[in-house]
Amino acid sequence: MARFRTRLALLGSAAALTAVQLGGAQPAAAAELQWVALGDSYTAGVIRAAGDTFEIPRDGCERTDRSYPQVIDRDLGGLFDLTNVSCGAATIENVTDTPQNPIGRHLPPFAEDPDYPFPPVPQQSEAVGPDTNVITVGVGGNTLGFADILAKCPQLGGENDGEGTPCKDALGSGIQARLDKVSKEYDRMLTVLHERAPKAKILAIGYPTIVPEDTTKCTYGDVTKFGTITQGDLAWLRTDILEPLNKAIEKSTGTQDTASFVDLYTSSKNHSACDDAKWVEGFVTLPDQLSFVHPNARGHRNAADHVEEAMLNTIDPS
Q1: Considering the domain boundaries, does residue 42 fall inside one?
Q2: For residue 201, what are the β-bridge partners?
Q3: pLDDT exceeds 90 at position 25
Q4: Inside any domain, residue 98
Q5: Cα distance from N-terminal residue to C-terminal residue, the chain
């Protein structure tokens, strides 16, 4: 990260110098680049381990103050003006052209949200316009149906006493069709975003490592990890779903000259939900917080570092 920190310092100094030359802070504020953050819960934050929700009244999207868009906003204040419309449970279509009914933290029978139901929120692309300079978008998992898979696998693993690959056996034949759907909708989303913001650089944010290569780290029955999902099914989730999902997103970015992929998977390799230094929580964060496999504040800090560097690389220092 040394190169990133040096570039950040140089750009910060340039911004400060410009402010002085122009006669104060007001002109510098006018020169901020317009940044719109789009995405699902891996962008919004959602869980308490990713900070506190900060919007009053709540809209049910559960954006948290330690999620990576908010971290970057604090790091790069004065360079980028953030509009964050990411929303927990968002699909690709919710980004492109379909309004969303946010769920907040309403996950019965596990959790009831006293403010549920929430009014619909517009499709996230509405926040993007001709003046947008940078778009970050982290989405795709809900279109794939990853949350539904995660909900089903512990049940099947428990019924199978932790043996074999019961989730793969039940759901494996349909995964390629799900991935194909992600690719098709992602391509269309990038096209729509480019049409709405022709001059914007689009940064497609991948998903971090969730399942370790060594699945023996994932103690069977431990709800702070993956509960009763079998080790065989965890390996399947990693190699046949999560890694191909990132590859599908990366491939889609190649369809647009203005888009590029930000890899979070490699840097988080040893920080899965089953590692001691975890950047992703398991099903539960002790003592009693439902996390349902989402990045914690450390994971969002890592995401912020990589996304910041990609954002700064969109700026011409000259």
Answers
A1: yes
A2: 134
A3: no
A4: yes
A5: 22
